[in-house]
Write a structure and sequence with these properties.
460 residues, alpha/beta, Rossmann fold, 2 domains, 7-stranded parallel sheet
Length: 460
């Protein structure tokens, strides 16, 4: 889910759009020449001194870097107040899911100004495919509301539409978009610029994609990511061989740019944090001093299968399905685990609390089908529990996550690491269970509990 490509409507002939695009081309060219001239002078200081700041989980590092909005908040705390013009931040990520999560957290939590006052910034989300619950923050939705207020909802001409668009972007404090959408018409026709560009999941975007938002001009760029997690998706073996899969984040990191390491985790039970810390970060992830107070003691902690770390063995066999894999025994076990959760905590809104994840698209389809059967729902209805691929869920969080790996591959340690990162990202003393099927793996995680169903001894 990468935000999509530009449509034909984005490049259709429009005098106003062409005029703005030409102005931006000239400005970019002037900036390039200005930089080239500086390099020509003896004694010129490298831009290393003001290099892009990269927030990177430790080396060893903290796997909980998934929320760049925390760093956006810090930037605003340092650079904003209620008495001075708000600085503008452009926040980007490779996927719609990551952008939606940022919008959701910033708008629900708010940020602090220099005077310590908590306020909700004006956030605008660009591009299609946003979550329905965030529709009110989309540029198109805001424009429709303004048209209704000013002209009773009647159609407006191109000039009025353009004026509304520019006005909304001018008023926005934080503009959020996927990397590809940041190169679309909405921003290309915008005459302004941004003080800061923040790129979340920067290690998952190809280098060319990460450069797109820089065309807007910025004084500071912040890259947030972890090369140990999901890499950029490159389908061409030739392109991969020539380095197209290397992210800008990795390139800058390997070039000794300043890296700020995050090494203290506040979100998961120490028993969950222990494995990824030792296996992937050489023991570098440390628990906060008050971690047990933060994660809290849950009523079900004494139940063995919902302890911090548990493993189960489920007999089953993966089957080839088109170009994917399925494991019906594992899918049935997931339904069984879900029924147990429902019986123990019947009042919980599981659509919001629970997610089921698998690296295989066909397994996702099978599990959705079984959930619909459980609720006697037709195929066209939305699945009562969120079920998605690992890639599709990256950047998201739930209180309880069930991860179905279908087939345990002894050399697929990186995938297991990604799953561990996903199940450990929820913040606050809510749940604490993970169900993990390893060859079958289930990993159910609810914040303080890691339950792993092992199908084979070599799952780890």
């Amino acid at each position: 889910d990468d935000g999509g490509e530009l449509s034909s409507s984005d490049i259709e002939e429009d005098p106003e759009f062409e005029e703005q695009l030409e102005k931006r081309r000239k400005r970019n060219l002037a900036e390039i020449r200005r930089v080239e001239m500086k390099w020509a002078y003896k004694g010129f200081k490298s831009w290393q001194e003001t290099a892009p700041k990269m927030l990177y989980p430790p080396q060893p590092n903290n796997p909980n870097d998934a929320y760049p909005e925390d760093h956006v908040m810090r930037l605003f705390k340092e650079n904003t107040s209620n008495t001075k013009p708000k600085r503008k931040v452009l926040v980007c990520a490779p996927s719609n899911a990551a952008i939606d999560e940022i919008v959701r957290r910033v708008t629900s939590t708010g940020i602090y100004g220099r005077d310590g006052t908590l306020y909700t910034p004006y956030v605008v989300r660009l591009g299609p495919n946003l979550h329905p619950s965030l529709q009110q923050y989309s540029l198109e939705s805001i424009m429709a509301t303004r048209r209704k207020a000013t002209s009773g909802g009647a159609a407006t001409n191109k000039e009025d539409t353009y004026r509304h668009r520019i006005s909304i972007l001018n008023e926005a404090v934080i503009v959020c978009a996927t990397l590809s959408v940041s190169g679309g018409r909405d921003l290309l026709s915008y005459p302004g610029s941004f003080d800061t560009v923040v790129v979340d999941e920067a290690s998952q975007g190809v280098e060319m994609g990460t450069l797109i938002p820089l065309q807007m001009g910025c004084q500071r760029m912040v890259l947030v990511g972890d090369p140990k997690q999901l890499p950029a998706t490159v389908f061409s073996a030739t392109a991969e061989r020539f380095g197209y899969g290397k992210s800008l984040f990795q390139r800058l990191q390997q070039s000794d740019f300043q890296v700020n390491l995050l090494s203290t985790q506040f979100r998961m039970h120490p028993a969950i944090a222990e494995f990824p810390s030792n296996e992937f970060y050489d023991g570098g992830v440390k628990n906060a001093d008050n971690i047990m107070e933060l994660v809290g003691e849950q009523p079900w902690s004494h139940i063995p299968i919902f302890g911090p770390v548990s493993f189960f063995n489920v007999p089953g066999q993966e089957e080839k399905s088109y170009t994917s894999l399925t494991n019906e025994a594992e899918a049935n076990f997931i339904i069984h685990i879900f029924k147990m959760l429902q019986v123990c905590w019947p009042k919980e809104p599981w659509r919001e609390k629970l997610a089921v994840i698998s690296p295989y698209a066909e397994q996702v389809r099978l599990i959705r089908q079984k959930f619909r059967q459980l609720y006697n729902m037709v195929e066209s209805k939305v699945c009562p529990v969120e079920v998605n691929t690992v890639d599709g869920f990256q950047g998201r969080e739930k209180d309880c996550v069930i991860v179905s790996t279908v087939s345990a591959l002894s050399d697929d340690c990186r995938l297991l690491f990604i799953l561990l990162m996903i199940v450990s990202q929820e913040e606050g003393p809510t749940y604490g269970s993970v169900v993990c099927l390893a060859a079958i793996v289930i990993e159910t995680v609810i914040l303080q509990t890691f339950v792993c169903v092992r199908a084979s001894a070599n799952a780890f």
